[in-house]
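Exercise 7. Predict the structure of Cell division inhibitor from Flagellimonas alvinocaridis.
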Amino acid sequence: MYQLKATQILPISKKEAWEFLSNPKNLKTITPRHMGFHILDGADGKMFPGQIIQYKVKPFPFANFRWVTEITHVVDNDYFVDEQRFGPYVLWHHKHFLKETLNGTVMEDIVDYKLPFGFFGRLAHFIWIEKQLKHIFRYREEKLTQLFGNVKDTKNSISTKRI
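Solution. The predicted structure, encoded as tokens:
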């Protein structure tokens, strides 16, 4: 299993951050175009526990995946959790936290994930998947900075580790 942590400070209120980040329709805006991300179903209305969202994603030039996630936990304006129900990972558990500070809102993501195929999955992680995930989160960071600006003299971070 692996864990990815990403932290970014946005110069907006926690409420503004929540309104944008908890709306599944905004995922396309913060996902790289080459991923071919498209929501198929389930993104209408306010986010709620038990919500099922279906996507199409193209992580490789030669492969399309249908990805189904469930929103398992929601505490308005604080955090939500999405878990893969069907898709490319054996496990995908993604926690999204928001914390208000004097400089704006700290957005922290913690993703615990496991790949299929044992040794070959670990090799794929080393060669490509870890880099791809970091690229996706860096892209998201850039898009959120374009949309909302950034906080001067802050360090955003993205890291992964095996757990």
